[in-house]
Amino acid sequence: MLTQPGANARHSLAQIAGIVMLEHDFQPEFAPDALAEMELIRAAGPAGRVEKDLRELLWSSIDNDDSMDLDQLTVAQTLQGGVRILVAVADVDALVAKGSAIDSHARKNTVSVYTAARVFPMLPEMLSTNLTSLGYNEDRRAVIVDIELDSKGSMVGWDIYQATVHNHAKLAYSSVGAWLEGRAPIPQAVEAVPGLAENLRIQDNVAQTLKAQRHERGALELKTLEARPLFSDGEIVDLRLDEKNKAHELIEDFMIAANDATARYLKGKNIPSLRRVVHAPRRWDRIVEIAAQHKWELPKAADPRALAAFLAAQREADPLRFPDLSLTIIKLLGPGEYVVESPKEEPSGHFGLAVQNYTHSTAPNRRFPDLITQRVLKAALTGSEMPYSRDDLVDLAGHCTEKEDDANKVERSVAKSAAAMLLSSKIGDQFDALCTGAADKGTWVRILQPPVEGRLLYGYQGVDVGDRLRVRLIHVDVEKGYIDFDKLHLAR
């Protein structure tokens, strides 16, 4: 047994998570030299202010209720014939020196890993949740992405610079989203700051305009069921679905715009950059087949606008089953990756977001690619020597892609262990399911209630992604995260 007898579910899952991290070549704990380095940084305190002072702007953060690693703040200003949006990104580089022990840990792991019972932060929490976090009521250094949009949401100007900012309100997706959608009263934290409510309304309108414009270009609107364990006294009592709302969309669309502007800025400076790309689907033929099952014809060649139209129609026609279709399409789109693109190359773009110029730059507390981009940006701003050669960037792009995939595997594995705990008393029960993966290494299905994925151990012949079927739970292994099913029949 890997877990201690008598341990509660949360404790057992935390133990499992640490083991799975090691299995995927992560460093779950910080080495002594990194911890000693952290003590020196803590004693010195936050990085000093920079000359440009933007503290009086109505900056606020919107994140999960319990998030403390705040990477970005947002604000908007109306202009004649358009609007100006600003995104402040935490200046992590100001305290985490390239080549330091903390940087080496971040470079190895490349990402914070969020498991069901424990978070493994990329940076020590004294940094990511305090000294480099854009925390409430704190003055902090930031890299500002300053974007001018016309009335239709088209980007007509952009600039990047450093400034000192102040977070006037720490807000949560749940309460801000409910307020913006008219389902709840204004959050107290918003009401307490004069002018913030109006500014957030402006930001919401801008985000919806940006979203609509991307959809016109073929951005895909997908909805998946993200479930996380609900604990009571350390035991799992249910799986809770995270629902996306207008507050999520506001931050998502502002970050897409900021990452677009950052990529354009580096391209304009003639500097190679680390791009985030999603290529045209490798299994477009299967997407065409699935659309045909819904009596919808897609072209033989990958076409984002056509796929977006199909998805929009299905969302309207069958909203209850749309998450199942979304999951299928996501699996068939294939994963994103990091690549290095020179200014003279035609950008590969992001198929799902319908954005040609795109990088990751807005979460340097949580993702190493964003810290890399931040260092490149700051070198461009000061005219100093580039911190990474092109060969360095190529190596890092491959490593970051690999570790992102590993992080997803860790999170999925621990989530499966949590789900196995919940299902351990249901061996022999039958469920409706959807095939989410079919390859030589195995066939995978997700049962619809509770939304849990497992392996189809028997009866998988002829089952393909998108097929609906009836399955029986035959085995779970909490420590390994195994959930195994037997096919009863297809449900065409």
Structure description:
With 492 residues, the protein is an alpha+beta fold. It folds into two domains: 9-278 and 337-418, no CATH class; 426-492, Nucleic acid-binding proteins (OB fold (Dihydrolipoamide Acetyltransferase, E2P), Beta Barrel), CATH 2.40.50. Helices cover 38% and strands 24% of the residues. The chain is built from 13 helices and 17 strands. It has helices spanning 9-23, 32-44, 101-109, 125-131, 173-180, 188-191, 196-216, 246-268, 284-293, 304-317, 322-333, 368-382, 390-423, and strands at residues 61-63, 72-79, 82-90, 113-114, 119-120, 139-150, 155-166, 170-172, 226-232, 235-242, 273-277, 337-341, 430-439, 442-447, 452-458, 468-477, 482-490. The strands form six sheets. Strands 13-14-15-17-16 form a five-stranded mixed barrel. It has a four-stranded antiparallel β-sheet with strand order 2-3-6-7. A hairpin with a 4-residue loop joins strand 6 and strand 7 (155-166). It is globular. The two termini are 41 Å apart. The mean pLDDT is 91.
